[in-house]
From TrEMBL:
Residues 1-20 form the signal peptide. GO terms for molecular function: poly(beta-D-mannuronate) lyase activity. It is an enzyme of class 4 (lyase). It comes from Vibrio hippocampi. The keyword Chaperone does not apply. InterPro entries: Alginate_lyase_2, ConA-like_dom_sf. This is Alginate lyase. The lineage of its organism: Bacteria, Pseudomonadati, Pseudomonadota, Gammaproteobacteria, Vibrionales. Residues 42-345 form the Alginate lyase domain. Its EC number is 4.2.2.3.
Length: 346
């Protein structure tokens, strides 16, 4: 096994030569039934979901549709949405769809069809979230650490956008969100005309409240994302070659996020069901702070966190963001992700 030593993290690669598994073979591996609703193929009892459409009545009228975990995890009266969250009728995969323009949650400009881990019933209580082991009040929270494992494929990303903006043509397929910032976002991005896309992840510096909008001597925000390539390269332009080690639309890959003690262990796998698999791993101390020499970073040792998974479309129509268009679903202005496996252990 070849190992690459990187600052604050490590990467490893395992390679073979067999053919990758097809969606049908992957669905069979995870015993998916194409006739069943998502909650009948996946354990959704610890998740709620937000969808890119508005509630028309009740207490959440005018806000994005949110299905609580009691309803989402119900296997006798299972929930699905024919546009945004449903079972693929050929494979049984759990499908998330998010258009370029749609209602969004309050603190975001991007549409999402995305799960949010719910360890308790009430959103705001400490028992609903997890912390690292060294958190000063760890026993008050729902879990110490936890593991999210997924096998999935990105079926589609927006076909419009400004290639100079990293949000264009991209979707977030997994996250750890904290009280303010995000120690982990997993991105997939593929440019039109490229056969393969890039998988990469980010660590957002967790700065103090006073530094939330502060800038350094060069005018750059202290609160920023630090990106790490996994397969392919972040920030490719139209005139660049497609990544030779990238991932195609519809190609199955896997990720595993395991927060154990104070360490976030990340594992990304291409061709996960074959001997041709390629594995890359990263280990990050969430309590260390000063991430890659950024002194404003406090780390995530004193905050609570929760897992997210689905399709968080990074495209929107703002020129300053990604300059994506909204010409309708038929024009390809949406993101779609299919999960063949999703496990949460907390």
């Amino acid at each position: 096994m070849k190992k690459l030593q990187l600052t604050l993290l490590t990467a490893s690669i395992i390679a073979g030569s067999a053919m990758a598994a097809t969606p049908a073979e992957t669905a069979k591996q995870f015993n998916l039934d194409a006739t069943k609703a998502p909650s009948q193929n996946f354990d959704l009892t610890k998740w709620k979901i937000n969808l890119p459409t508005l509630e028309t009545q009740g207490a959440r009228k005018g806000k994005t549709v949110e299905i609580p975990k009691q309803e989402l995890g119900d296997t006798k009266k299972p929930f699905s949405d024919p546009e945004w969250f449903y079972t693929n009728k050929e494979t049984g995969a759990m499908v998330f769809v998010a258009p370029n323009t749609a209602p969004t949650t309050p603190n975001s400009k991007n549409a999402r069809s995305e799960l949010r881990a719910m360890l308790a019933v009430d959103y705001g209580e400490p028992a609903n979230n997890f912390v690292v082991a060294s958190h000063p009040d760890a026993k008050s929270y729902g879990a110490i650490g936890g593991q999210m494992s997924a096998t999935l494929a990105v079926d589609h990303v927006s076909e419009s956008g400004n290639d100079k903006k990293s949000g264009a043509f991209s979707v977030v397929v997994g996250q750890i969100h904290a009280a303010k910032n995000e120690p982990l976002k997993i991105f997939y991005r593929k440019l039109p005309g490229h056969e393969t896309g890039s998988l990469y992840w980010s660590y957002e510096l967790n700065v103090s409240k006073e530094n939330h909008n502060a800038r350094d001597e060069n005018g750059k925000k202290l609160r920023k994302d630090i990106y790490h390539n996994v397969f392919g390269t972040k920030g490719l332009r139209h005139d660049a070659a497609a990544p030779t080690d990238g991932i195609k639309l519809g190609e199955i890959f896997a990720y595993d996020v395991n927060v154990e003690g104070d360490i976030m262990h990340l594992t990304f796998t291409k061709n996960p069901s074959s001997s041709a698999k390629v594995v890359k791993t990263f280990d990050i101390d969430l309590t260390a702070g000063n991430y890659q020499g950024n002194s404003a970073d406090l780390g995530y040792g004193n905050t609570w966190m929760y897992y997210k998974a689905g399709a968080y479309n990074q495209c929107n129509t703002k020129k300053s963001s990604s300059a994506c268009e909204w010409r309708g679903m038929e024009a390809g202005d949406y993101a779609q992700v299919s999960f063949y496996q999703l496990d949460l252990k907390q």
